[in-house]
TrEMBL record:
Keywords: Membrane, Transmembrane, Transmembrane helix. It comes from the Bacteria. The keyword RNA-binding does not apply. This is PAP2 family protein. The chain crosses the membrane at residues 171-190, 195-217.
């Protein structure tokens, strides 16, 4: 996940420079667009998922459901797979692939990359601290970073991204990412890496992260749109075995 985040950060900054001439509505039009406005209704589903996950940590009935699900899986011994490591990114890849074949979404390359990059940043900002604070042990006992599921969060963040990009022009196509996200979540459970509550909470975090990315997009887009009297400097950075970028904006 760290590699993917670093890659997205590089894309995030690169498109802000090389995509300046791409079609983008002016700030006033973006700010007035309902697609980017905060809505309490869009919090209902992710809040319900996250709430379920949190309750599964302490509520006896939900903890028993976690345990009984893992018991049933071990009884039937389904085949494990590593596909969930890749399907978490599949909906986002589909958006870029469909655009490459002429099936356009709501945003051009630069703008959708800004939104996706912001969503992934929100996802990491929510998932990683929670894992280290909650310290829930994984079903296989490998570590105590089970809650919430990062794979599920990424999968549902990208599925929600695909939904938001295509829902207005091709509703049925916009739903195509959710089965892939569900597959990812189910196999995190089958692979003995997560409890049911971890996956449900991860799904909520992912959906919320993408919605947040669309809400802040007008401000982020304005910040990344440069005028003639502005100068930027982006430098690669490598420290403590971590690849990153330094970003400077001079007014």
């Amino acid at each position: 996940m760290k590699f993917f985040m670093n890659l997205l950060l590089m894309m995030y900054c690169s498109v802000s420079i090389f995509g300046q001439n791409s079609t983008l509505s002016d700030s006033s039009n973006i700010s007035g667009n309902n697609a980017y406005q905060f809505s309490y209704k869009k919090l209902i589903i992710p809040a319900a998922f996250i709430g379920y996950g949190v309750l599964s940590l302490t509520t006896r009935d939900l903890k028993e459901l976690n345990n009984s699900t893992q018991y049933e899986i071990k009884e039937h011994q389904p085949v494990h797979t590593k596909l969930d490591n890749y399907t978490q990114y599949a909906p986002a890849a589909m958006v870029y692939g469909l655009n490459a074949f002429g099936i356009k979404g709501k945003h051009n390359f630069k703008d959708r990359t800004i939104i996706l990059g912001t969503s992934m940043l929100f996802t990491s900002a929510l998932v990683l601290p929670a894992k280290h604070l909650i310290q829930e042990e994984r079903p296989d006992g490998s570590n105590k970073l089970s809650f919430p599921s990062g794979h599920s969060a990424t999968a549902f963040a990208t599925a929600q991204f695909m939904f938001r990009e295509y829902k207005d022009d091709n509703f049925w196509l916009s739903l195509a990412g959710y089965p892939l996200a569900a597959f990812t979540g189910v196999y995190r459970i089958i692979n003995d890496k997560h409890w049911v509550g971890d996956v449900v909470a991860g799904a909520g975090v992912g959906i919320l992260s993408t919605e947040m990315a669309y809400w802040v997009y007008p401000r982020v887009s304005k910040w990344l749109t440069f005028k003639d009297n502005q100068h930027t400097l982006i430098m690669p950075q490598y420290q403590s075995k971590q690849l990153g970028l330094c970003y400077f904006k001079i007014f």
